[in-house]
Amino acid sequence: MLTDKNILLAISGGIAAYKCAELTRRLKERGANVRVIMTEGAKAFITPLTLQAVSGHPVSDDLLDPAAEAAMGHIELAKWADLMLVAPASADVIARINAGLANDLLTAVVLATAAPLAVAPAMNRQMYANPATQSNIANLSKRGALIWGPASGEQACGDIGPGRMLEPMALVTLLEQHFSTKQILTGVTVTITAGPTREALDPVRYISNHSSGKMGYAIAKAALALGATVKLISGKVAIDVPQGAEVIDIESALDMHQAAMTLAPQSDIFIACAAVADYRCADIATQKIKKAGDSMTVTLVKNPDIVADVAQLKENRPFTVGFAAETQDVEQYAREKMQRKSLDMICANNVATPGQGFNTEHNALDVFWHGGQHSLPLSDKTQLGKDLLELIVQHYSKREDK
């Protein structure tokens, strides 16, 4: 699985740095190409000469090295990597990566690379448990970083608990698993709508809904992991952009409709996961509406039906998947909507069920297509996004095989 894979190993300061010679050797045994970046702290625990000997390449350790940077060394490393592994990843380097700093070679390459980022935390158990560290790790995970470890056990300081870097062979196994994921969507373009729309009433007020965008973003991450080119048409959300996705930011349903009708004919799969407002204000006030009286009348007009318009394309129509958020008679309403809008598949969820649906971490879906259905049980939206996309790909592939 690792033959000819370019692994960029970034070593930060920590006693676990000594394990990186063994890690590099094991990766080389499996056919990987390994290049090493070291921080100043790392060099206090293991020498660059050792890593050069086992990797077969000079070690990079200075962002301001005139010789290396004459050829834009940090950009060259960033482009070379198929995956960047930070191991050990100290609390300090995790914090700096999370903050988007680029004050040394390691953090600069993290910002510059489009390759997947894997982080192997290694630190004292109290440092690992600190809320600041936990927040930093959670943020990196939300942005798409792979968090590998830590392990639990006796630490160099004598403490016992979570914080040990995973052993070299455990990291090798994770790398093999990562690269064994079949890129079954390579060459396939997936366009996804996500999040809420905002329908303006005046310059300061709007009508919207409780959609967090988490489901659509989870599907986008799953599609990227399978090798797809991902276009994400997104309303306003508080979620980090999945690394590798092209995001088209929109405000209103009309904005989303325009973006969808532009991108859908260029796409192989179109997944309408956004919570789009059915209606918009007929006349948007140019100035803030002042409070007057005990009631107010607003005239609303219907918005275009985005997923129906995509499904009715005469040329270059993508495999079209809709969503139905219902509060009762879920299957009946979902199948009626699928038929009425000429969809290939529809994903229905009961938003009246506590703990799932809008603005939650979990969801469950009943997926329907012509002649079949499948239920995806309650799970976190990241896992649900993977399971749903696998189901979509099965039926998209059947259509392509005809």
What is the rounded distance between the termini? 32 Å
Strand order of the largest sheet: 12-11-8-13-16-17-18-19
| Low-pLDDT segments, ≥5 res | none
Query: Whole-number radius of gyration?
Result: 25 Å
Structural class: alpha/beta
Helix fraction bin = 25-40%
Biggest β-sheet: count, sense, barrel? 8 strands, mixed
Total DSSP helices: 14
Shape: elongated
Can you describe this structure?
The chain has 402 residues and is of the alpha/beta class. It is built from 14 helices and 19 strands. The protein has an eight-stranded mixed sheet with strand order 12-11-8-13-16-17-18-19, sandwiched between helices. A five-stranded parallel sheet has the order 2-1-3-4-5, sandwiched between helices. Strands 6-7 form a two-stranded antiparallel sheet. A hairpin with a 5-residue loop joins strand 6 and strand 7. The longest helix has 21 residues, at 381-401. The protein is elongated and about 75 Å long.
List keywords for this structure.
402 residues; alpha/beta; 14 helices
